[in-house]
Each structure stands twice: as C-alpha cells, then as structure tokens.
Amino acid sequence: MQLSPDQVAQFERDGYLFFPGHFSKQETEVLRAQVPVVYAEHRPEVVRERDGTTPRTAFAAHLYNDAFAKLGRHPRMVEPVRQLLGEDVYMHQYKVNGKQAFDGDVWQWHQDFGTWHRDDGMPEARAMNIAVFLDEVNEFNGPLYFIPGSHREGVVEAGHDLTTTSYPLWTLDNAKVTELASRGGLVAPKGPPGSMLLFHGCLVHGSPSNMSPWDRVIVYLSLCALSNHITRHKRPDYIAHRDFTPIATLSDDCLLRDDVSGLPWPSAARAA
Ligand code: SIN
Ligand code: MN
Q: Tell me, what's the pLDDT at 168?
C-alpha cells in the first residue's frame, strides 16, 4: 500500500492520516476475538487501570498471540510508515489499549516521541504510530483527541506524571495545550471497527475517560526507522523493544489465513 502525494502532503501538514474502514469486518473480528484472550493473561505486559482489574493496555501482544503477531507485520500497517520514514522499520512498541466501557481511564495530553526520547534514548522523531480500531470509536467512548499541526513544534516541555493514571507518562501542562489548540484546534477521528490511524511521533494527543457502555479497543504499532533505534534501556523490553530486526511483511490476506508461514518472533507466537 502506497500513500499518494496528496496524502503525504496532508500528513506533513496535519501530522496524521485517517483511513475509515481500512480493514474488513472479517479481519477485524479475527483480532477482536483475541482481545479477551490477551486481557485474561496475568503477566506484567498486561497493565490494569487504577482499580487493579480493568485492563488498560496489553504490551507486546505480537509476541504471545498469533493474530496480533500477524497484524504486527501486516503490509497495510507497515508499508505507509516505511514509505514516510524512507527506510526499513522495526517494532519499538506494540499495545492493545482497552479503554473499557465505564472504567477506561484518560490518557493525558502527551507526545509519544517525548517519552521515547526521554526514557528510551530514541535519537530523532523518526518513529510513529499506526493504529487500528477494533471497536467503533465514537464521541462517547473515549476517542483520541489530536491537535493538528502540533507535530511541527518538535519536542515540547513536559512533566513526568506518575500519579494521574496507572501508567507513567511525560505530559504537557494546560497552558501549552491551550496555546497549541488555539492555533491547530482539536480533532477526534471517529469511525467503524477496522479504521486505521497513522500519526507523527510529535503529534500532541490524549483521550478522555470512557463513561459510555461501549468498549473502545485500539491496537497501536509504534514503528521506528532502523537507523534511529533506541539507545537507553531503562524501561522493560516489553515496553521498549531491543529487537531491531527490520519487519518483513506478510501477505495482505494474512489475517484470514491459517497457513501463514514466517510469522515474526516465532518462539513466542508458537508458545501461545
Ligand atoms: C496513547 O496515546 O498512547 C494511547 C491513547 C489511547 O489509546 O487513548
Ligand atoms: Mn500516545
């Protein structure tokens, strides 16, 4: 899958691209069926909300679940990022974010590269997220909020928030968010399951809590240019991977096939 020159220009201007309904219902169902399986695991990779039970995110699910392993090297996810970065990419981080009905908590305002740079020693903002919705995302169930164009600021000042949620994050203060939003406004991409969202590592974003009766599961691949791999190993390797192997993509129909060979990270995928 190749982005058109118009899409590349839009990404450079806004810092994100949205592809509603990019994966079919059937493909999305294959992934969605695995969400309860992954969240039922009691392992450090599965982080709970402050209530200690509700799953907030499952890190590195591509290392212990076949369907998520396939998504981690799906050409519709990997190729647009490889095109924008102009070189091969490796998996820096992989997460299945829950934002569960009634109990899904906020993600404060932040830039992902702010954390990758400060905590993981990632040299430059040559990494980005590509995400797929496994549920419908609507105005009620905690959609992502973006400040369009904020990626052009580079890394902005942030404080290390260790208390607001169960997961530490480098977050922006209200004055900075107000200033950036006065220029770029806010958007909240909404769409059916299977929609795909690509966003720059410096794009300022967050999401509100989910007080609706509907889950909002989104899977994020954080892909980094090979030449830009991390240099600091402060966080566990299931949060900031040390395997800098370039991702080799599978066939476009891999989610619907059982006979896919060459799954990435085979030892872990097979162990599932
Ligand atoms: C994130 O920004 O890393 C997660 C936000 C969300 O899933 O709402
Ligand atoms: Mn983020």
A: 87
Nearest ligand 1 atom to the CA of 57 is 7
In 3D space, the residue among 56, 103, 62 whose CA is nearest the CA of residue 217 turns out to be 56
Distance CA 64, CA 127 (A): 23
* Residue 138 pLDDT > 80: yes
How many Å apart are CA 217 and CA 33, to the nearest integer?
12
Find out whether 172 and 120 touch, Cβ atoms under 8 Å: no
Centre of ligand 1 from the C-alpha of residue 143, in Å: 9
Domain boundaries, the chain: 5-271
Q: What is the pLDDT of residues 66-100, one digit of tens each?
A: 999 999 999 999 999 999 999 999 999 999 999 99
Q: What angle do CA 83, 61, 223 make, to 5 degrees?
A: 20
Q: Taking the complete model, does pTM exceed 0.85, yes or no?
A: yes
pLDDT in tens, 228-265: 999 999 999 999 999 999 999 999 999 999 888 777 55
- Going by CATH, does the domain composed of 5-271 fall within 2.60.120.620? yes
Q: Pick the atom of ligand 1 nearest to 110's CA.
A: 2
Cα–Cα distance for residue pair 69/200, rounded to 1 Å: 23
Q: Whose CA is nearest to atom 8 of ligand 1?
A: 207
Q: Name the burial class of residue 226, with classes exposed (0-12), middle (13-18) and buried (19+) by CB atoms within 10 angstroms of its CB.
A: middle
The Cα–Cα gap between 6 and 163 comes to 41
3-state secondary structure of 46: strand
Q: Is the CB of 58 under 6 A from ligand 1?
A: no
Is 107's C-beta closer than 6 angstroms to any atom of ligand 1?
Answer: yes
